[in-house]
Amino acid sequence: MQNEHHFVWEAMVNAVDSQLTGQRVLDIGCNRGGFLRMLCDGRDIGEGCGYDPAEAAIADARRLAGQRPLQFAVAGNIPPGWGRFDVAFSHEVLYLIPDLRSHAESVYGALVPSGSYYAVMGVHAASPLMVEWHGEHAAELRLPPLHDADGVAGSFAAAGFEVSASRLKIGFIPIPVPAPRVMEWLDYYNEKKLLFRFTRPFAGG
Q1: Which of 73, 86, 88 is closest to 46 using CA atoms?
Q2: How many CB atoms lie within 10 A of CB 167?
Q3: Could you give the dihedral angle defined by the CA atoms of residues 156, 57, 61 and 177, in that order, rounded to the nearest 10 degrees?
């Protein structure tokens, strides 16, 4: 799964408008820690912290971290005592969170003033493939109702963030085998895969 996401991670990091060298980074929903390892090896971050509710995934993350300056926690929310992050990231996490306002407030408190949270979100109400997927799996996976982009932006703005958004700039996209509906797959990644940037203002931080 880590390698399957690598091309999205690269696009997400390439969209960041500041250097990550030496920075303190939070990965929300880190799974097995692959994204933070990538940032350590390729962007020379100063420290990375990741959390995820999956115990087995966090055990793997800790094992795979080696001597990198990374720490991981089994948690569904930002662990107590974690804070002063320069930047935070998440990839397909927002759609799993019923109360986005509470999540936004938690991240706001964990960032330094002028720090930003970059969140990739393709599973939303304006994404036809994901609307179909959500309809098939919501009950089984106990998913909350789909968010729409306006609601996401509003929740983070209400928490005090400056909100901006873009589409990910992705080149070649791996096509699974057996292939899905290829044109819809390309449209999903090029048109529906959103990148939100939520920035904690410096004034009054």
Answers
A1: 86
A2: 14
A3: -90
Is residue 92 a contact partner of residue 189, using CB atoms and an 8 Å limit?
Answer: no
pTM score, whole prediction: 0.94
Token output for 82 = 């974690």
What gap in Å lies between CA 126 and CA 106, rounded to an integer? 26
Which secondary structure element, helix H or strand E, spans residue 69, and what is its range? none
- All structural domains of the chain: 2-199 (3.40.50.150)
Counting other chains too, the contacts that 69-73 makes at CB distance below 8 Å and 24 or more residues apart are 69/40, 69/45, 70/33, 70/36, 70/37, 70/40, 71/47, 72/30, 72/33, 73/49
Per the listing, tokens 């999205």 go with 8
The H or E element spanning position 79 is none
Closest to 121 measured CA to CA, from 14, 28, 4, 21: 28
Return the exposure string of 122-135: e unless at least 16 CB atoms fall within 10 Å of the residue's CB, then b: bbbbebebbeeebe
CA distance linking residue 63 with residue 124, whole number of Å: 33
| Token pair listed for 25 | 């980074």
CB under 8 Å, gap of 24 or more: what pairs does 17-20 form? 18/87, 20/44, 20/45, 20/87
Number of alpha helices (DSSP H) and beta strands (DSSP E) in the chain: 7, 7
pLDDT digit string (tens) for 156-203? 999 999 999 999 888 888 887 776 688 998 999 999 999 999 999 986
